[in-house]
Design brief:
Organism: Chitinophaga fulva
Protein name: CBS domain-containing protein
CATH architecture of the largest domain: Roll
Helix content: 25-40%
Keywords: CBS domain
Oligomer: single chain
Pfam families: CBS
Number of helices: 7
CATH superfamily of the largest domain: CBS-domain
Shape: elongated
Number of strands: 9
InterPro entries: CBS_dom, CBS_dom_sf
Amino acid sequence: MTARELISTVPILQPSDAGAKALRLMNEYHLTQLPMVVENKYMALVEEDQIMDLEEPEIKLESIQYNGANRPAIQEGAHLFEALKLFYEFKLSVLPVVTKENDYLGIITKDNLLAALAQYNGAKEAGGILALEMDPRDYSLSEIARIAESNDVTLLSVNTLTDPSGKLEVLLKTNRQELHSLVATYERFNYTIKYIYAEEQEEDLLKKNYDLLMNYISM
């Protein structure tokens, strides 16, 4: 999924706009940042805190000092994981999407990004969640997948995280709610099970959590 596929359309700001107008639009669209565009060229990402620092609400946005840190953007053909990286690095609520020539196309909102990630991670699919813990040198996705397949379990998504101690956590989202046999097989191959959400009664909880996520995204 590319950045262009995640675009939302929101009002743009111009240097001649007053701070009060920018704050009004941010409030209306529940955002803390909006793009400044001049003749269809992306110029900067205006932040709510910058406007609040203005001495008067009617002062124009062109009076704000902008630098490279105020111009985060992503090219239209970039993958959504690159967008996720930029959201994290710049602590964004929106991310402008541009062409190679810096033509402004629209923005990616945090809500749209969360919805896309939910699809990639199989969050809306019923199934158990299993976390393995291991040394990074012992990680073999092919073996982990082979063990799952031998138990007639499909891995809907695989995510990894290295904790402060250097251990690797491998999070498996599966298509099966009952995972006792899979857990037993992983343990037989000397894998450490960190945690598991796989009891039958957990199905309603997983669905509830997904519904809560979707409700949040639609707010």
